Amino acid sequence: MSGVADFYGSVITDAAAGSPAAAADVRAGDSLVRINGHIIEDVLDYRYYAYDARLLLELRRGGKIVFKRVRKRDGSELGLTFETYLMNGERSCANRCIFCFIDQLPRGMRSTLYYKDDDARLSFLQGNYITLTNMSEREIGRVIALRVSPLNVSVHTMNPELRAYMLGNPGGAGGVDVIRRLAAAGITLNCQIVLCRGVNDGAELDRTMRGLAELYPAVASVSVVPAGLTKYRGGLAKLEPYDRESARAEVERTEAFAQKCLTEYGSRIFFVADELYLKAGLGIPQDAAYEDYPQLENGVGMLRSLITEFGDALESETLRSTGAGFTAVTGLAAEKFVNELLSDAQSSGKYGTIKGRVLGAVNRFFGETVDVAGLVTGSDVIRTLRENLPVGERLLIPRNMLRHGGTMFLDDVTAEDVEREFGVAVRVVENDGADLLRAMLGH
To answer: Which of 51, 197, 349, 425 ranks highest by number of CB atoms within 10 Å?
Structure first.
């Protein structure tokens, strides 16, 4: 956009019947240019400036500018739908991170899997993690002015030179100062550190944790997650997976610093991903160690949450087992834990006969070092079941194996494909212990 004069606004595709916008004669095909004199470039501007009860909308209708006054309750929706969710183009990633999972995908997968976003708007609206490397001074200022908070930020290290190397982008160094500026402006940041063995762990992790802790409470939480390494790393940086000893060292390092933060700030701030505990051969911490589970969507505390919810459900559930046999498939990392939950349900004696088993799927698609359920593909599920027939009357799979609430695995195999292959009903289990118990009971 070169200036106000050539800004044509975002095209409206629908003004919902009965909405304030429809009542003001806003129409599909109009383009929204301004609200109360403020140019509306994208969804952030729209949500911020459309909050008030009294609005003056400037619209482009055909070749003319028209104005419409709207009255509504503070914070209520205008009722407009636009051509795109963000109302303009999505910002893609400009980095070449040494640990990027997308760069480790095999060829021939659907094109959408190879797209890398790095958009502050999606961080705020959907929880995506961003690196801050493609934000201009104007965009940083707008985040601060519009109070776009919280943001999820991939930090990895507070060493500017090392961050530039890890992101494969010289601009990565400046992101350290941007993090400090956003924190100083009161923008809440939930951060992640993707640990690469021998790169940003050890003393560098100490330095990063100290730097981020100084920004508390703006830096509200930080997850420490091991880099996921597939077998498709040809031509990429040489990275070694964590073994038991090296993983344990980083868990102990992080937990020790988190305990200091708990004493000093009243929060641990730093939380270790489940995957790193499993690699270290350590038990999953108790419920209190995760506080209010601020990093649950980043794989931090998911197992403990599942175990806790399952235990609560065992105390309160009144349904009886249907007696139908089942197989539950999960990642190798979670197999032991889900088996223990099944055993608890069977031994409780409350629900009748529960006939089932749990299988951990070896990940041949991405490589056997990838052991989390969310990266198990449909082809790996099918292979695992073929090697362990019979399946039983039902197949249980966790929701996070499927993409975006649908029925498709990462490799384009669908849950329906699996059903046809084995002639069984697939029961998708939500990421919730109570739903897992109900699924085991046949409900």
So the answer is: 197
pLDDT tens for 231-284 read 988 888 899 999 999 999 999 999 999 999 999 999 999 999 999 999 999 999
Output the CA torsion sign for 398, 402, 405, 407.
negative
351: Cβ contacts below 8 Å, ≥ 6 apart: 317, 319, 320, 321, 345, 441
The residue type of 395 is: L
**Strand duo 10-15 + 80-82: pairing:** antiparallel
CATH of 102-299, one of 3.80.30.10, 3.90.1170.20, 3.40.50.720, 3.40.47.10: 3.80.30.10
Query: CATH 2.30.42.60: does it fit domain 10-82?
Result: yes
Q: How far apart are CA 342 and CA 328, in angstroms?
A: 10
310/342 Cα distance (integer angstroms):
10
Residue pair 218/189 in contact (Cβ under 8 Å)? The answer is: yes
Q: Is the pLDDT of residue 133 over 60?
A: yes
Contacts of 210 (CB under 8 A, 6+ apart): 158, 257
Q: At residue 382, does pLDDT exceed 90? A: yes
pLDDT tens per residue across span 215-242: 999 999 999 999 989 898 888 889 999 9
Residue-wise pLDDT for 42-72, tens only, equals: 888 888 888 889 999 999 998 899 999 999 9
Arithmetic mean of pLDDT, 296-304: 89
With the CA atoms of 344, 381, 280 and 228 taken in that order, what torsion angle do they form, in degrees rounded to the nearest 10?
-140
* Host H or E run for residue 191: strand 189-195
Q: How far is C-alpha 337 from the geometric centre of its chain's CA atoms?
A: 22
**Residue 385 CB neighbour total at 10 angstroms:** 21
Which CATH number fits the domain 306-441, given the four candidates 3.40.50, 3.40.630, 1.10.760, 3.20.20? Answer: 3.40.50
As to burial, measured by CB atoms within 10 angstroms (0-12 exposed, 13-18 middle, 19+ buried), residue 276 is buried
Full-model pTM: 0.83
| SS3 assignment, position 352 | coil
Q: What is the largest CA-CA distance in the chain?
A: 73
286 within 8 A of 304, measured Cβ to Cβ: yes
CB atoms closer than 10 angstroms to residue 355? 15
Of 328, 338, 358, 349, nearest in space to 426 by CA? 328
Tokens encoding 156: 């990895």
